[in-house]
Signal recognition particle protein
Amino acid sequence: MFESLSEKLDGVFKRLKGHGTLTEKNISDGLREVRLALLEADVHFKVAKQFIADVKERSLGQEVMRSLTPGQQVVKIVNETLTDLMGGAHEALDLSGTHPVPIMLVGLQGSGKTTTAGKLALKLRKEGRKPYLVPADVYRPAAIDQLKKVGAQIDVPVFESRTDMDPVDICRQARVAAHKAGCDTVLLDTAGRLHIDETLMAELQAIREALQPADVLLVADAMTGQDAVNMAKAFDDALHIGGVVLSKMDGDARGGAALSIRSITGKPIKFIGVGEKLADLEAFHPDRMASRILG
Ligand code: GDP
């Protein structure tokens, strides 16, 4: 992930470090290249602009550290600004409230929602919790079967949803069933469509209203770049999401979604999907990601 951005930034920083002392011109030329690299990585233009302004402001305010060369100092400031851009500290899944705690997964069809439900179940189980999976997409029988298979693979119970049931009823009944089964976390895999539409949003709002989930996670495909950012904004406006799971980061060489979502929506990326296997889910740490980008 981030290969092309990393490579470009590496080039800029090598040139900056090559100078013994840095003039204002060296720095502003370097930052112009950083801005271009961000735009090529499909970072939202407003985010790229603000980013450069923040780096400049920090550079002016910084005391010169004797242990670092001027070039190293710029890299350090870029690293800190990137970390802040992605939210600063890691934000965990909200599991507060009485058991079983409902967690709602939303997103477009194909974004990786069902896979993420399985990944999250596996992760929670490894942390000592007892997850319960709920297929709440009654429009595609294949979606129900897919989640059943995922559940069987990791030995996590799955609610017996039927396509003739109402999605809100499914979620309500599933919570009762999860309680009876001694489970403490209910993962609701809701319906996705190819595009956002009012019917879908109304259904998701009804589930949110009825279940009052502790967290609502939007699963967005990192490879769709700015589309993922627009998606996050639209879902948040309609549904007030708690955070984002950015899936398919393993296939995303650019990184625009990861870098833009926080500042455009104000919502944190909580997890990233890094492969097709159910173990391929990582907690998102802005500082680690910034260091990964800067190599
Ligand atoms: P849904 O329609 O949103 O439920 O999407 P699915 O969970 O069915 O996922 C769609 C496709 O994306 C499947 O082929 C998954 O294996 C794949 N997928 C999901 N997450 C990831 C990921 O993090 N990395 C990769 N490489 N593939 C993923």
